[in-house]
Amino acid sequence: MNQPLQSRPAEDAQELAKRVRAFVDERILPREAELAGPRESARACQDELTAAAREQGLWGLFYPGRMSSLEAYLTVAEQEGRSEYGGAIFGTELALDTHMLTRHGGAEIRAAFLASLLTGEGVSAYGMSEPDSIGSIPATIATTATAEGDHWRLDGRKWFICRADRATFVTVVARTDGAGVDGALSMILVPTDAPGFSIAREVDILGRFQGQCEIVFDGVRVPRHNLLGQPGAGLALMQERLGLGRLLRAVHWLGLAQRSFDLMCTRIRSARGEQARLGDKQLVRLRVFEAYQAIASARGLLRDAARKFDARVANAIEVNVAKVAASQALSRAVDSAIQVYGAEGLSSLTPLSGIYRAARATHILDGTDDALVSAVGRRLLDAYQDADSLDFDWPSLSGTPAAQ
Predict the structure, then answer these.
(1) Beta partners for 127?
(2) Residue 359 host element (H or E)
(3) Which of 39, 54, 369, 398 could bridge to 383 as Cys pair (CB 3.0-4.6 Å)?
(4) 3 state DSSP class of 290
(5) What is the mean pLDDT of residues 134-151?
(6) Do the domain assignments include residue 60?
(7) PANTHER family from the xrefs (predicted)?
(8) Domain ends where: 228, 254, 274?
(9) Is the pLDDT reported for residue 399 higher than 70?
(10) CATH number for the domain including 159?
(11) pLDDT digits 0-9 by tens, 164-191
(12) How many helices (H) and strands (E) does the chain have?
């Protein structure tokens, strides 16, 4: 049985990042083909690497009490993200739930669900999107949770639910009161072994199954104390979760962007690259410049959003802009790398084709680019209703809260 996380003195983030990078380069990257292979062998490989990460004290680094701040963790997280499998192996995929349950879970939730996450025995999933609702409009959520004595009864469907294939519980966004969103939605934790819970089908992402499924709640009953936070607080919890979740995902994308950039520049300076005189071509230099600019810009935006998160001030604009920037940086870097490699970059001879598929998905995950750009654009224009200038350092402190 895995042991609970032990608190330890804060380790210098730069030194910890070096240790994580070495683990990724030496242990994970050589086995990426295996991790992308048949499900049974891939799962065994992931479990083996996770155990090794735990032995080296590199698992769950952003779990409550492990890092001094989100800003400090970003340096480490970029190195975790150098492989698209890093989030699962280092336990970072579950970090968001450990924070949400720590902040908003009662004693029963902490004992039944949080404790298993902290030991590595539990696996969490989050159920918000639905087949017949619009993901960016919470008012369209139709799954219901009806109070019946000392239990909730849940009915509905969710889809594109990450880790649903192996989750031990799901945090479900359900309608507990009336229409709309204000005071009508709540978050309820549902064990996946509860009667009435089932997986309707597996859902692939760009031709690859990555643990996402459509799930069904058919009269599922769970205790009333499985409520996260207060009744009707679902919208506020969703916004809190989205803010932190977007930052945690986006910083991993920067890790993949940096890896793609490294592969591109190494290829340009290789013997084959020198033979083709790639470094002398202006369009190649432009690709290097633009990829570097995109990565450096996204990194700065993420750090700004993280500093404000740590200071507990409004940062919705900063988070959304940083998320879009990180997605764009990854897409630009991997696309440029593939262009430099040519046909080889499209094949399994390099990791670039897999990274490219992951990059395209980032423009949809955790809020589509279009929805976030529209929301931020509206918010920025709203700031000019009562002023003729915007404070770029604190845009989220002006006007009304930005839509998430």
Answers:
(1) 172
(2) helix 352-362
(3) 398
(4) helix
(5) 91
(6) yes
(7) MEDIUM-CHAIN SPECIFIC ACYL-COA DEHYDROGENASE, MITOCHONDRIAL-RELATED (PTHR48083)
(8) 228
(9) no
(10) 2.40.110.10
(11) 999 999 999 999 987 777 899 999 999 9
(12) 15, 8
- Structure tokens given for 63: 């779990």
Q: Give bridge partners of residue 197 from the DSSP assignment.
A: 217
Q: Cα angle at 119 between 199 and 115, to 5 degrees? A: 75
Whether the Cβ atoms of residue 163 and residue 125 lie closer than 8 Å to each other: yes
Same domain, 260 and 386: yes
Q: Which residue has the tokens 């993200």?
A: 81
Q: Is 214 helix (H, G, I), strand (E, B) or coil?
A: strand
The answer on 175 and 92 residing in a single domain is no
pTM greater than 0.85? yes
Q: Which of 199, 203, 135, 200 is CA-nearest to residue 173?
A: 135
Do 142 and 77 share a domain, yes or no?
Answer: no
CA 8 from chain centre, in angstroms, equals 26
Candidate from 332-336, 343-347, 367-371, 393-397 with smallest mean pLDDT: 393-397
Domain that holds residue 31: 13-105
Q: Which two tokens stand for residue 203?
A: 């859902």
Question: In angstroms, what CA-CA distances link 399 with 386, 387, 396?
Answer: 9, 10, 8
Written as six digits, the tokens of 164 are 């649903």
Q: How many CA atoms lie within 13 A of 367 on its CB side?
A: 28
Residues 6+ apart with CB under 8 A from 257: 291, 294, 295, 298, 326, 329, 330, 332, 333, 334
**Residue 4 φ/ψ region, left for φ over 0, alpha for ψ in the -120 to 50 degree band, beta for the rest:** beta
- Cβ pair 395, 376 in contact under 8 A: no
Q: Which residue has the higher pLDDT, 112 or 3?
A: 112
Let me know whether 133 and 217 are in one domain: yes
Tokens of 251: 């910083």
The number of distinct structural domains making up the chain is: 3
What are φ and ψ of residue 100, in 5° steps?
Answer: -65, -40
Scanning the structure block, which residue is given the tokens 């995929």?
A: 93
Among residues 212, 222, 160, 161, which one has the least CA distance to residue 191? Answer: 222
**Do 215 and 134 share a domain, yes or no?**
yes
CA separation for the pair 321, 125 (Å, rounded):
25
Whether residue 63 sits in one domain with residue 80: yes
